[in-house]
User: Which sequence fits this backbone?
């Protein structure tokens, strides 16, 4: 019941900060989508790598993913959260100053990312590539956001928190937890650090992070936005309050466990893999709870689907959400994963979510917000409708081409002849087969970008034609102090602290149960395991491997599947990566697995292959890494690197640390000599290529007892 | 709208957004419970119920494959079998194509030797230069010296074609030959 003794107040919302975040969204969406088109073209047509150190696929791909997630989606989330929360709480944001620090701080982080990623400063952990100074900045700005958000909750004039706010709370708490735990690292220099975790620990923590970045950066905030903007745009009540409660808590509790489904059939302990799989299956219904609540809210408003581009975007977004959250559990089934993992099917799956769900939610929200905030009409509904169809076709072309490419390649990798041999033993055959689909994908991306540009023009004209805006007073009724006996969840909706603590506990349970055991790494290693750590030159090469983003196209993890054992050798073991800070198992095989590539080819083969892969494999789509032959290796920093690794438990002697550079130079001379002896050029001993060769030749060679 | 009248509602109103209190759809609840029951069964079966682990599954599959390979041995070609093919221009040309794609990077397009040895001279590091020797080296490789084992990548008839092609270039005296390696084999 409405409060009788309500207080009426006139207040101002801070819409200026929302406008700022909207403009930043538009700018960085352009960057993210253009980078996406560029990397798609590079995969279809390798010369698009431009022989450039700064623009090769391995460096641009992290730029694309980070820009899409943290710059495009991030700014849009902040715009939506700040706009909707003020209205749901009947309160201006807690602090104008913090809002501005949040805005400018976040943009500074994005610019820093856009500069450092092409320069090759990277952790080598997907979606967490940014180096340690930027990691610290992200933490600080996230805290500013949290203080500003919870401060606003504290001064609210509405007693209860609407479901959208529950999702915002879950987002803020969990993203903080994920980022801080996964980014634990020890600096070596201003722009280089090593994660404290190694091998299976690092794999577990990374995919707990990676999966839940999707969950709590690309899902929960967007569900929150859906719960506000969809009923607003359709002017219909939300379908079911009860469903909101059940699916919120189920989603938050279950999602956090699902990370290990990215590591099925790896050397991660099997119990963790199985947990990842079964929790992913149980996640299906809670995810669909959100879809149902979204789509059924449109009951009675379906006619708007014909006329209103905003409803078109929202309804399609929620449908894509439903598709992606069905496909996710499906891909988490071990036998399905054995075909889909490492292929483009996963790329298709994630873009169904990002282009279809996140992108379309954002576009719908922007078409809703811009005319309202700038107090004018949308410049052209027709253009918005054209944007919808262009974006929709682009998404479909992208998704279908990648699903077909992924399943085709996955089946080709496994295909056997009746006499027990691989049907396609030559990896490149499986690449050339799907290359036409890479063109279709690039075309889909271009369509999506074109649709976006239509929106930019449309919104530009809208804003340009708007009157000079003055902040408007809003009359609100303070219902904060309603006294009524409330039980169950309704009571919880009025208790921010209790609600937040419960949310934190819900995400903590799965995190602790999965991560804690793997921290005692030795439990999972056979007692007889004897693994030699990397030599200093190999470590230098490994850091180049990370800098060039090799892990984005090459795995280092042979799965215990017959076809993999025939193709690559015996399955990878937990001990083989026990000194790997970070692990480099990879998640995609655009090229073959490299776990046992060491000693397979002569040094000169690697030299020629790195400089121009087509000399060795005529149809290869790998970029040329010509700069490795001209850049000098930094030998001196190896002492510091060795000392950091020794402190983290790698068994290096004091001599190995103190003379790391000398040992490295000695090994480099030997390799340079062997290159020359095999007919290669002379004088390469100080060049990066030699370090890279040292590392590649060490892969799979470090465990004393190579398993059968 | 009629559905509004029979829909249970709440008194919630947030910035104009109202909420119905519809019950959870039955099919949704059934799905949710079914996945939970499946999850428990699956977990118990594989963790405690003796379900096969990945290692055991792999050894089973590998045993099957070894049986298949045993039934279809890679090659039982004799020197005579290969000699019979040596005159076929079609097979030699196929071998030439394969050589260009797979071998030229190390042995040179004219077989003159680059990383790997010259294949046109009278010197052999492994074996006596017979057709079966060449086939064996292609098949099994010399891992210590960087010659990969091609058995896993090439079909039988491809290995035959390569063997015959390599033998056909003996004494072709390419320009810039690599210095002789191994033993001189007179024949």
Assistant:
């Amino acid at each position: 019941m409405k409060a009788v003794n309500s207080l009426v107040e006139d207040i101002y919302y801070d819409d200026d900060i929302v406008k700022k975040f909207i403009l930043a969204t538009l700018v960085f969406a352009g960057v993210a989508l253009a980078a996406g088109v560029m990397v798609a073209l590079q995969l279809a047509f390798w010369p698009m790598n431009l022989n450039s150190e700064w623009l090769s696929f391995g460096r641009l791909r992290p730029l694309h993913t980070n820009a899409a997630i943290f710059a495009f989606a991030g700014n849009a989330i902040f715009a939506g959260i700040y706009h909707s929360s003020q209205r749901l709480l009947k309160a201006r944001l807690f602090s104008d100053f913090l809002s501005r620090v949040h805005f400018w701080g976040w943009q500074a982080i994005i610019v820093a990312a856009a500069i450092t990623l092409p320069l090759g400063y990277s952790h080598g952990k997907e979606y967490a590539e940014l180096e340690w100074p930027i990691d610290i900045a992200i933490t600080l700005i996230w805290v500013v956001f949290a203080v500003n958000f919870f401060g606003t909750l504290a001064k609210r004039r509405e007693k209860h928190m609407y479901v959208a706010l529950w999702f915002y709370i879950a987002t803020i708490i969990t993203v903080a937890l994920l980022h801080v735990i996964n980014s634990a690292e020890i600096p070596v220099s201003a722009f280089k650090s090593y994660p404290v975790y190694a091998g299976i620990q690092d794999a577990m923590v990374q995919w707990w992070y990676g999966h839940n970045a999707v969950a709590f950066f690309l899902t929960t905030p967007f569900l929150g936005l859906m719960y506000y903007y969809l009923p607003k745009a359709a002017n219909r009540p939300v379908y079911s309050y009860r469903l909101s409660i059940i699916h919120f808590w189920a989603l938050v509790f279950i999602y956090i466990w699902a990370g290990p489904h990215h590591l099925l059939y790896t050397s991660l302990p099997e119990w963790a893999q199985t947990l990842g799989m079964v929790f992913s299956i149980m996640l299906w219904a809670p995810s669909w709870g959100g879809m149902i609540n979204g789509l059924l809210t449109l009951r009675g408003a379906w006619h708007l689907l014909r006329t209103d581009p905003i409803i078109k975007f929202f309804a399609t977004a929620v449908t894509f959400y439903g598709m992606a959250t069905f496909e996710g559990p499906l891909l988490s089934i071990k036998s399905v994963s054995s075909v889909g993992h490492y292929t483009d099917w996963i790329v298709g799956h994630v873009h169904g979510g990002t282009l279809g769900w996140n992108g379309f939610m954002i576009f719908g929200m922007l078409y809703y917000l811009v005319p309202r905030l700038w107090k004018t009409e949308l410049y052209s509904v027709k253009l918005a409708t054209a944007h919808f169809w262009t974006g929709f076709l682009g998404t479909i072309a992208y998704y279908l081409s990648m699903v077909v490419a992924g399943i085709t390649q996955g089946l080709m990798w496994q295909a056997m002849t009746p006499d027990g041999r691989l049907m396609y033993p030559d990896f490149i055959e499986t690449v050339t087969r799907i290359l036409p689909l890479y063109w279709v994908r690039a075309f889909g991306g271009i369509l999506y970008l074109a649709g976006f540009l239509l929106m930019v023009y449309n919104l530009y004209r809208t804003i340009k034609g708007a009157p000079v805006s003055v902040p408007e007073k809003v009359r609100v009724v303070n219902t904060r102090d309603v006294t009524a006996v409330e039980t169950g969840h309704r009571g919880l909706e009025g208790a921010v602290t209790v609600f937040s603590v419960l949310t934190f506990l819900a995400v903590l349970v799965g995190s602790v149960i999965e991560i804690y055991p793997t921290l005692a790494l030795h439990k999972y290693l056979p007692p007889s395991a004897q693994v030699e750590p990397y030599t200093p030159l190999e470590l230098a090469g490994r850091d180049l491997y990370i800098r060039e983003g090799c892990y984005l196209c090459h795995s280092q993890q042979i799965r215990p599947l017959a076809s993999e054992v025939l193709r690559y050798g015996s399955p990878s073991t937990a001990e083989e990566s026990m000194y790997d800070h970070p692990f480099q198992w990879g998640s995609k095989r655009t090229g073959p697995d490299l776990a046992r590539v060491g000693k397979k080819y002569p040094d000169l083969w690697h030299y020629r292959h790195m400089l121009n892969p087509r000399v060795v494999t005529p149809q290869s789509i790998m970029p040329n890494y010509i700069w490795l032959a001209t850049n000098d290796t930094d030998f001196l920093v190896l002492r510091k690197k060795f000392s950091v690794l020794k402190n983290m438990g790698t068994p290096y002697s004091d001599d190995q640390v103190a003379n790391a550079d000398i040992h490295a130079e000695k090994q480099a001379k030997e390799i340079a000599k062997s290159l020359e002896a095999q007919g290669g050029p002379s004088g390469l001993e100080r060049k990066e290529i030699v370090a890279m060769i040292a590392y590649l030749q060490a892969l799979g060679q470090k465990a004393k007892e190579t398993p059968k | 709208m009629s559905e509004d009248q029979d829909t249970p509602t709440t008194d919630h109103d947030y910035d104009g957004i109202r909420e119905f209190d519809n019950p959870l759809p039955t099919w949704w609840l059934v799905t949710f419970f079914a996945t939970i029951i499946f999850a428990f069964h699956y977990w118990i079966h594989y963790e405690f119920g003796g379900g096969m682990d990945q290692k055991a599954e792999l050894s089973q599959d590998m045993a099957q494959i070894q049986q298949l390979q045993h039934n279809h041995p890679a090659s039982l070609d004799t020197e005579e079998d290969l000699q019979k093919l040596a005159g076929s221009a079609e097979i030699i040309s196929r071998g030439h194509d394969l050589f260009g794609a797979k071998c030229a990077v190390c042995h040179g397009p004219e077989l003159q030797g680059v990383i790997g040895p010259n294949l046109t001279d009278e010197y052999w590091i492994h074996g006596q230069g017979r057709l079966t020797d060449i086939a064996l080296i292609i098949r099994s490789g010399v891992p210590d010296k960087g010659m990969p084992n091609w058995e896993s990548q090439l079909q039988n008839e491809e290995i035959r074609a390569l063997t015959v092609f390599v033998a056909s270039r003996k004494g072709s005296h390419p320009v810039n030959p690599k210095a002789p390696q191994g033993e001189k084999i007179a024949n």
